[in-house]
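Reviewers of the previous submission asked for a worked example of the structure-prediction workflow described in the proposal, so we include one complete record here. The input consisted solely of the amino acid sequence. No template or homolog information was supplied to the procedure at any stage.
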Amino acid sequence: MDLIYGIKDKPKFGKVVLFALQQLLAIMAATIAVPAIIGHGLTASAALFGAGVGTIVYLLFTKSSSPVFLGSSFAFIGSMFSAFAGAATLGLSEQAGYWGLIIGALMAGLVYVIIAIIVKVCGVEWINRLMPPVIIGPTVAIIGLSLSGNAIGDLMKSSVEGGSTYVALICGLFTLAVTMLYSTYGKKVGRLIPFILGILGGYILATLFAIIGNLTGNEALIIINYGAVKALDFSSISGYLSLPKFTFLLGGGAGLKAVSGKYLLTLFTAYVPVAFVVFAEHLADHKNLSAIVGNDLLKEPGLTRTLLGDGVGTMVSTFFGGCPNTTYGESIGCVAITRNASTISIWGCAFICIIFSMISPLVALLETIPSCVMGGVCVALYGFIAVSGFKMFQTVDLNKNKNLFVASVIFITGVGGMVVSFGAVEIRTVACALILGILTNLMLSREEA
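From that input alone, the workflow returned the following structure tokens.
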């Protein structure tokens, strides 16, 4: 891809701030969705803080050579539920459950560290042989396609009960249109920040509908929820600045003391198998990003460094925000569409996440962005991920039955949404497709040309 800014390029400060904000808007919805799904007192502000710190750790390990943001991982949602459920089953307090999140993430991170050591000793060529383009291309495409349902669901969802699906759809499509127009025809800075302008346009349109709805008493027009802003108490300092509810503080000393041997075994079975699955997604994401930036990230900075950054970043992030991290497809899509691969933008996004997490009005304002507006942006983001996978797939010889079967297995299991569960362990769609693709490729590897 013809990049406007390469990995080591340094845009001017004003542009860096805009690029960082754009990355934040791209990754924010998913990052704060995980704590909302889990509940148990986990907050969006803590998740943002943890994601920012985790990304900084990743950038340090990768020598600022891999332009991707680390956000809350959906793959570990089942593991996080198991941490609290396991504590309750064993008669432990919820405080022990918070430490379960941290300890489970430590176990998962150690899996990454061990694999990184193996890669350091054995190199990465075995990975390239195990997962050639016929596997990686379709798998990357599935990452985008498997998220398409989320994008369309959000595109047609009102953030207020009683809001019209059609009004939400109009705002979502308007957001998408503004994003596409600026990305294609925008001048100078406008072409580099299409997501900010798209989200701003969708937000303004949703606000106009809300104003008309309130004036006319038509609740169907109100699809934007300002509840988070209304809940702010400006009579105290907490209405302006507040420290996020960090996981280790929620657990406290009493929660750590309550952790038992049986509970550790529960955490091991819940987190470690999932870590191997997320490792596969880590590979696919970095292969995808490598194709976008025109540099094999598995060789420079190297898979060892990316794994260590991801693993240690997850450990640190969970200590603060409770959510294990993973490289974000939304961030990669943002790089692809804007053609800005400068890692300074990722540094800026990480620091902004940390700062924003402590400014109450900003956190509240971000939470008011309607689901449909984010859905409009995600249609473009997820679509670019899928298309980049198809581009990697172009060099594959489909005249060979082996390649046809490998690609078929990955596409059908991926698009079909295959998910396999073993107790508390859940192997999600992308991992299922990748694993079956690898097994199919190995089984048919003796086919003659």
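The two ends are 31 Å apart (CA to CA). We consider this example representative of the routine output the project will generate in years two and three.
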